[in-house]
């Protein structure tokens, strides 16, 4: 690939990067007219307000206001600076980003950390021996699978990794920032964080090593030890295996969520490449958003013990909040997916996934297990608990069907259970309160101003003609007045010429609204007339106030001048 300088590459990427293709890699989008809509990746929402225009090369969220062009999107979604965003897009387009001529600090601390973590990954891989490979083979994993996940080993010792990096000239402070070493209390010395542990590298969505998960090789605590948060790694904002599973999730239109790293590797080994895991931590809202960008369906296959069942319920609640449809697979006779696959094979596991139950059915069944259903009191308590679960179900048809099956299972009158559910639903709605409000429609004047801004941005030829026809002083809204003044100035090239973020945000909102204007020159004429009429109307209102004052002051000469001006403006108003 030929190298070009940073200025040229920026223009090249702006011209070649398709914003729809880039954004679709992170957000599920659906076509709406000329634009595409999806749930915003930058804030929580239940109704899609995130809009992308392939034609205009813009994105904007009408909920939180985030927006911009393709480079802005990558900077925000990947949490990187401008140069790093260019590199990400450059990789997609086959363009090399040349950093020569930049301040060395521009390569920055993050890149040093990425380089450091990659070197650490190779160091751990180099320690992998037959003993560790044998451990995985006993679990049902071949060496090929172990190698594909770049599994390594941290030797038993206090400073193996530290000494390796010091000999290579690395700064211990960078090692500490990356979470690879820990300072000794009260001393300027360090020791390795990972010792005598199987090392599972954690990759970001671009496949870069950002952290490690270390499993104890022997009987000592903690069983799992993860890298701490760093400038390149936040545990609750990553999913183990997502870099491998991303494309397959989109292809199969659902994701499998398992608890453990070995569970994930076994799933991939048996062809279930759409599997991810939450890094040995409680499933987070951010992780739910990561999955929501790729799919609307998740099957949870957590461990079959009590802790796994509880974790599955919590994960389901978080996914439901993100508007993801959840099903839960249960393995009655196996501890976890890894054991199930080893004992039963991929066909049985596929059948298990296929027969996974809705989260609602799973929660009700778990509730039943807590009570002695052979006794009246146990059935009554189970009914009350089931009613509390069904009270929050919004779909009336679904709720009614589950009420029927629950009443039948417990041998309880349907109407009694329905009444209990309604009672709980009423109290919960009282607790939640209500929100509402009516949005005030835009005025005719504001619509005319927005229309002129849109037309000026959309068509360079029209913009040139508008320079002769449109006077920014006709605009009432100061924001749109500033925008149109900049847009109709000499050497204007696009939205990036606007100085304020508020102005850019306003323009994005205007450009991404549906527009079916056919006769644009006529629309310009009509909008200008609307603004002129409103301007004259405002001037006439001021003149009326002034006339009243002069009549009271008995100033006939001044009064005559105002009356003549009032008549002239009234005549112009009638002619428009």
Q: Helix and strand layout, with pairings?
A:
Blueprint: E1 3-4, H1 6-16, H2 19-24, E2 30-32, E3 35-38, E4 50-53, E5 58-61, E6 67-68, H3 70-78, H4 82-93, E7 96-97, H5 108-126, H6 130-139, H7 143-148, E8 152-154, H8 160-167, H9 172-177, E9 181-183, E10 190-192, E11 197-203, E12 209-216, E13 224-226, H10 242-252, E14 255-258, H11 261-269, E15 275-276, H12 285-292, E16 297-301, H13 306-321, E17 325-328, H14 337-354, E18 357-358, H15 359-369, H16 376-391, H17 396-410, H18 414-432, H19 444-458, H20 460-469, H21 478-487, H22 501-511, H23 520-553, H24 556-575
Parallel strand pairs: 1-7, 14-15, 14-16, 16-17
Antiparallel strand pairs: 2-3, 3-4, 4-5, 5-6, 8-11, 9-10, 11-12, 12-13, 17-18
Family: Belongs to the DnaG primase family.
Cofactor: Zn(2+)
Subunit structure: Monomer. Interacts with DnaB.
Main attributes of the structure:
Dna Topoisomerase Vi A Subunit, Chain: A, domain 2, DNA primase DNAg catalytic core, N-terminal domain, five-stranded antiparallel sheet, DNA Primase, Chain A, five-stranded mixed sheet, 5 domains, alpha+beta, 576 residues, globular
